[in-house]
Amino acid sequence: MDLTPTLDAIRVFCEERDWRQFHNPKDLTAALSIEVAELMECFLWKKADELTLTIEQNRSNIEAEIADIAIYLFHLVEVLQIDLPAAIDHKLEHNRKKYPIEKSRGNAKKYTDL
Q1: Which of 12, 27, 78, 105 has its CA 20 to 30 A from that of 49?
Q2: Residues 14 and 20 sit within 8 Å (Cβ to Cβ)
Q3: What is the pLDDT averaged over residues 54-66?
Q4: Alpha helices in 22-83 (DSSP H)
Q5: Residue 43 pLDDT > 90, yes or no?
């Protein structure tokens, strides 16, 4: 998946509106958190057996909220000059040690409870 055109589009969108002045790490993080909360709201009070229908009926809104999350996350990564693939690789390696397969496979417990 080549995200370069998407990342460029996000950058251009913000530059055209002169929004970089507002996009500091604190505010981008707050915006990201708010968008995650809006995604959570799509599923609020739904029982497990209602989720399939909820997703089907609200797919466009769910997609829009996920897009908002991605936009703010990618913009935050750019502002902080983070190599996201490298950060993900590092975090996965860290989590491999915390969640060894033999203890965590099929288990939802936190690493401190394994």
Answers
A1: 105
A2: yes
A3: 98
A4: 25-43, 51-57, 59-79
A5: yes
